[in-house]
Amino acid sequence: MFGKFSRRAFAKLAGSAALGMAATRAKSEEGGPKALPDRHAPASFPDGFLWGTATSAYQIEGAVAEDGRGRSIWDTFAHTPGRIADHSTADRANDHYHLYKEDVGLVKELGVKAYRFSIAWPRVFPEGSGAPNPKGLDFYDRLIDELLRNGIEPYATLYHWDLPQSLQDRVGGWQSSETSKAFGDYAGYVAERLTDRVKNIFTVNEPGRFVNFGYGWNIDAPGLKLPLRELNQVHHYVALGHGLAVQAIRARGRAGTRVGPAENIAACVPAIDTPKNIRAAEIATRELNAGFLGVILEGKYTEGFLAYSGKDAPTFTAEELKIISSPIDFVGLNIYAPQFYVVASDHAPGFSVLPFPASFPHMNSEWLRVGPETIYWVPRLAAKIWNIDTIYISENGTSSTDVPAADGKVSDLDRIMYLRNYLTQLQRATSEGVPVRGYFLWSLMDNFEWIFGFEKRFGLYHVDFDTEIRTPKLSVSFYRDVVARNAIGV
Ligand code: IFM
Asked: Of 122, 157, 273, 340, which sits with the fewest C-beta atoms within 10 Å of its C-beta?
């Protein structure tokens, strides 16, 4: 550890530390402030708080052509030259399809009680609809049984972006309500088969990302750049797909199965905590999330959203709004970064958004700005606006450069710093009664980070993608400790 220090540098460091200690002694001898205790009281999370970790199918499974799996839009996209930064694909990724037992062991090592994974729709319905693949759910049967054998509760996500290519080709994917209907049927089929053991289901993951990036901005699969009206219609059909899935799970799953969405909510934070700015952040949260969480939880699009969208507003029926707002059991919020720092405004709609200075700090991923208070404010505002009684932080975490040292260890101090700060703010929220019931750290292990390929690592476990060897990073010790004590701080 000190190998790289010259004797001189070490002596200098040791010298200044000694000087500091002498000054402290001098102060207390003079009757100054009492020495602080070595340890401070731990800040506990509520009893029964659910600790977990998360992954998704396309990012880890590999085995893209095994056991009858159909192609997904991400297979096509990743194989399109120029789309993925490091020219990789997820054809093999973490080979989790074959190494799942080892990976469940990694989850267990963390001491968490829940694991959130996603089911690959094209494994179950290779064409998206029609005949199910007889082997389609076998892998998930094995995974779920292994989790339960290890005392880990499975939380399944039905859609984490791997749309069957056939649906994209036949009906334009989420541009058509045919896809919403196919999604409902797929959800019902999965519920029928798995809810004897899976008690919690997330419908869709991050519409706010996959619709805009995939259908609006030509960044993610399927790589389209639709005009705003059509894009709003895609958002609407995803919300409809969510609602149809909720209904199908209720109709065909075991009684008591809990269901909800997981959204990367547009994260609005009061720039300075004053009552007026907090109110402004509330308005902003409601208006900027009107197209998904809002319509699900209110059964209507806000007047602000409709006025702002004007001729680009989606077309919809009253019946569709009813389906979309089918009652849910929880709301999953994926919270990584502050998206909008908000202040009050005298002009409609009552808030304005401040620009980020170029010097605003970010983590290894440039979009991942550091704003720990986001995970305090966002669930708090959402719970208040929509009267939500059960929120899960369905994703939170960060990438880091994560280069193993000569001894193979990964000292991911920046990830630990990030997690410590975010979890401190989350504890602050729960201690004030914000109804966050659980937390899923993204991610269990490094994986295929979409357009960044394997360049951005979000895992608690380092993965060598040549050998498939998993190695715990330092943050494993950090997280295991938080989980074991159900508290942040010592
Ligand atoms: O890896 C993604 C995940 O698939 C969706 N939420 C954000 C993560 C980090 O970018």
From this structure: 273
- Give the torsion through C-alpha atoms of 52, 57, 58, 62, to 10 deg: 110
The label of the residue with tokens 């499974």 reads 61
Q: Quick check: CB of 140 below 6 Å from ligand 1? A: no
Residue 97's nearest CA partner among 78, 117, 112, 77 is: 117
State the burial class of residue 407 (Cβ atoms within 10 Å of its Cβ: 0-12, 13-18, 19+).
exposed
Helix (H, G, I), strand (E, B) or coil at 394: strand
Domains and their CATH numbers in the chain: 49-488 (3.20.20.80)
Token pair listed for 181: 């209907």
Angle subtended at Cα 198 by Cα 123 and Cα 256, rounded to the nearest 5 degrees = 130
> φ, ψ for residue 461 (rounded to 5)?
-105, 135
CB 337 within 8 A of CB 398: no
381-401 confidence digits (pLDDT tens) = 999 999 999 999 999 999 999
pTM: 0.94
Looking at the DSSP assignment, which residues form a beta bridge with residue 451? Answer: none
From first CA to last CA, the distance across the chain in angstroms is 25
Tell me the best of 72, 449, 452, 457 to mutate to test the pocket of ligand 1, counting ligand atoms within 8 Å of each CB and taking the most. 449
Query: 192-232: per-residue pLDDT in tens?
Result: 999 999 999 999 999 999 999 999 999 999 999 999 999 99
What residues form DSSP beta bridges with 331? 391
* Residue carrying the six token digits 């996500």: 157
b/e per residue, 246-273, with b = 16+ CB within 10 A? bbbbeebbeeebbbbbbbbbbbbbbbee
